[in-house]
Amino acid sequence: MTKQIPLEEGYMVIPDDPDQACRLLGSYSKAADKTFFPIRKRCPITEQSVETVELSNEGELYSWSFVLMPKMGSQQQDASGGFGVGQIDLPEGVRIQSVIDGKQEDFKIGMKMRLAPNPMATDDDGTQYCGFKFIAIEEA
Amino acid sequence: MNRDVYVIGVGMHAFTKEYIPVRDMYFTAGTDALKDAGIDFKDVGYLYNGYIGGGMMEGTGYAKDLGLTGVPVVHIENASATGSSAFREAVWSVSGGASDVAMALGFDDMARMGLARKKPAPGTRKGLPSFENTLLPAGFFAMWAVRRMHEAGTTVETFAKIAAKNWNHARHNPMAQRRADHEITVEEVLAAPMVAYPHTAMMACASGAGAACAIVATEEWAKKNANGRPMVKVTASQLQSEVYSEGHIFMGAVVGPAFSTERTAKLAYEEAGIGPEDLSLVQVHDAFPIEELMYYELLGICGEGEGDRLVHDGDTAIGGRIPFSTDGGLIARGHPGGPTGIAQVWDATRQLRGDQGKFQVEGAQNALVHMMGAGSVCAVHILQKA
Predict the structure, then answer these.
(1) Strands across the sheet with B366-373, in order?
(2) Which of residues 48-67 of A touch B (CB under 8 A)?
(3) Are B138 and A70 in contact, with CB atoms under 8 Å apart?
C-alpha cells in the first residue's frame, strides 16, 4: 500500500487507513469563537490562546478559476494544459484556497467539495509527499 | 504629519522586459530625480531603497554610484507595495524631522525572481512548494473576478475594457513597458491567450524590470527648488496591514480582505481633508482588471455594484470623470515589483504639475496612489497641487 505523508508538518493529517478521511489542521479560539486555517500561534482577534483542531473535510465552492500557467515552483506548464483553483468554505467559517480537480466547465459556485491528498512527489520507497486538493462530490 | 512634505523631484528608468543591468536603471532613476529636484545627492538626508528580488545590501551598493556622502541608507520590502512603503518612509523621515530631504528609490528585475523559484522553499521536501505558497497570484485575482461575475453580473467584456483602456493610456507614456503602436481594442484583449479564467494575458500586469525615484522635502526646500513649477504636497500617507474578516484567508499569495483598501483610503481621506469626489486621478494596484473595478467602489468613487457602469460610460479613461491608471497602470506601464509604487508617484507628480503631455489629465488638483502588497498591506497616498 502506498504511504502518503504531508509535505510539511502542521497543516494536515493523512491517516494510514485509506478509509479514514484526511483533514486539514486549524486553530480554534474559544475567546473569539472563531476557527482559523492554517494553525495560528494565538488568536489574531483576542490575542488569547488557541487549540489545534481537525477541520471538516467537506465544504462549498465559494469561487474558482482555471489557471493556464506553470504551477508555483515550476517553470513548465502542466502537461494537462492547466489546473483548477478554488476557494472552499468549510462549516467552521474557514475559507481554504486550494487546487481543485476538474476542468473549467466542471466548476460551479456553491458545489460541494471534499478534501483529498494531492501527491506531489514520490520517494524511491514509494512514499508519496502530499499537498492537498479538493474534489467535487458527485451528485447522489 | 508633523511637518508639511512636498515631492520635489521624480525620475524613472523606463520599465522594460529587456535585460538592462539593475545598477544602470538605479543610477538613471536616481540622477533623473536629483536633476528634476535641482539638488545634489549630498543634499539627501535619508535614502530608502525599495526592492523585492535583490541580494543583501544591493541597494546600498548601487547608492555608491550616486555618491559617498555617509547618508543613512535603509532597505524596504513590502511585496508589491515596496515602492509605496519606501516612499512613505521618506515622507515620514521629512515629516518627523529626521531629514529635510529624503529619497525613495525602487528597483527590481522580475526575471531574477523567476530564477529564484528554481530553489526549493525553506522547510519543504523534495524542492516542492510549501503549503503556504502553492497558488499563484493570478489564480487568486481570477477567483475574485469569478465571484464578482457571480454576484454582480460583471462580464468578461468589462474586464477587457479596463485592460484596453490602460493599454491605451500607456501608448504615450515613455516610461511604460507596453507601448502599443495602435489603439488596443476590447476584441484584441479578449483574443489574447487565457492566463487564468476570466483573465487573458493582455489583462495581466506586465512583468519586467525598471527603477523609479521620488525625492521629498520640507516646504522650505520645495519653495527653493520649485523653479516656477507648481509645488506638489503629500497630504496623506497611510499604510495598513490586515484585520480579521469573515472568510479570512491567511495562506498563499493574497492581498488580504477587499476592505483593506476601503479602510486605508478612509484614513487617507481623513488625513488629507478631502473626499473621493475631490480626486482628479487615481493610480491603483491593477495587477488584473478585477482589482481596478473593485477599487472604484472600495475607494468610494462610486457605490457598491456601480463600477461596471463607470467602465461602460468611460468615466475612468483620460478625459472621463475620474481617470484611473493614467500612465497605463500595472497592466501596461508595468509592475517590476520594487519601483511600481514610486512610478505611480512619478506620474501623479507630473500630472499635478501639468507635465504629462498626451496623457495629461487637464486641471489635475488631487491624485490618489494605491498599492497592495501580498502578505498583505495596503498603501494609500494623496498628492495635491499646492
Answers:
(1) B73-76, B46-50, B101-109, B209-217, B5-16, B232-241, B377-385, B366-373, B281-283
(2) 62-67
(3) no
- Ranges of each domain in chain B: 5-115+207-224
pLDDT of residue B131: 72
Direct distance between the N- and C-terminal alpha carbons of chain B, in angstroms, rounded to an integer: 16
Tell me the pLDDT tens digit for each residue of B75-102: 999 999 999 999 999 999 999 999 999 9
- Which residues on chain B are in Cβ contact (under 8 Å) with A97? 135, 139-140, 143, 249, 251-252, 254
Q: A92-114, pLDDT tens digit by residue?
A: 999 999 999 999 999 999 999 99
Q: What angle do CA B13, B18, B23 make, to 5 degrees?
A: 50
Residue B131 to residue A37, Cβ atoms within 8 A:
no
Burial B47-82 (b: 16+ CB within 10 A, else e): bbbbbbbbeeebbeebbeebeeeebebebbbbbbbb
Whole-angstrom distance, CA of residue A57 vs CA of residue A107:
18
Q: How far is CA B185 from CA A116, B191, B202, B203, B368, in A?
A: 43, 10, 11, 12, 27
What superfamily does domain B5-115+207-224 belong to in CATH? Thiolase/Chalcone synthase (3.40.47.10)
- The three-point CA angle B177-B174-B180 to 5° equals 55
CA B69-B73-B75 angle, to 5 degrees, is 155
Grade residue B252 by pLDDT with cuts at 50, 70 and 90.
low
| Among B134, B193, B246, beta carbon nearest to A93 | B246
